[in-house]
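hey so i finally got around to running both of the ones u sent me last week. sorry it took forever, my laptop kept dying halfway thru and i had to restart like 3 times lol. anyway pasting them below in the order u listed, first the sequence line then the structure token line for each. didnt double check formatting much so if smth looks off just lmk and ill redo it

first one:
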Amino acid sequence: MIPETYISNITERLKIYRQISECDNAEKTDALQKQLKDRFGKIPEQTLPLFDIGPLRQLARQNGMERLLLKNGKMTATFITDREHAFYQSSRFSRILNWIMVKKKGVNLKDTGGKLQMTIDHIKTVNEATDLLLDMMVE
């Protein structure tokens, strides 16, 4: 969260939220953090976790996930809607399925209205979600 005391103008705050969400690598993140420090001063502690969202989205895309939601201690990932997509024949998807079979507890994979969704319990933070997606990628 970007506090009003850090950036008082709502339009500017929304612009910064958008810019943060587009930071999907370290170079972009570092550049934006430097820009914010130069313009507004030290970045508040509660704002720093926002910079982890871009890399998480990138990992989600790499794992065939079109949408990722962290809410109420659960992570819900919606996989690519097109079931004919090459992703479903890839070794990456096979790894994810194997990971689910090994983990089982707290992991649910289901078809919801034509969308394949995976729900994982006990994921409360962006960092926990990132670690989990990285774990899925390990062969």
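and the second one:
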Amino acid sequence: MRNLKHHPVEEFTDYARIPTTEVGVSADSHHYVLPHKYDADANNPNPEKNNCVDSLRFIHLDKDGKYTPGVTDEQLLEVLINRTEYFQRMVPCPENEITLNCLKAALRVKLYRTELRQKANVEGTHIKH
């Protein structure tokens, strides 16, 4: 069990509950289950209900070279960039701009790492570049 930070705004904590359960073949951060108090069917916050779950599963390469499908770090960063750009258009603030710069920098670094691994012919393996 890995506990990630709750939302810093107390009244949102029950609706954006982030304690996660890591599941999968190992405890290597490949799959997160994110319970929250949000009734997705009614599209309405429901403090009485806590059985809603979202799942975030990352792509995983086993030691034998077999892939388990999932989201890549780069895709998740792109989602966060898109979401933050939306918020910045709606309610601009310096903190969103800083967040965007950091997320975009992280994405550039991840893409650069992939480029280096491809050049070294080790992308898709457990071999260091």
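quick thing i noticed on the 2nd:
The two ends are 31 Å apart (CA to CA).
anyway thats it, ttyl
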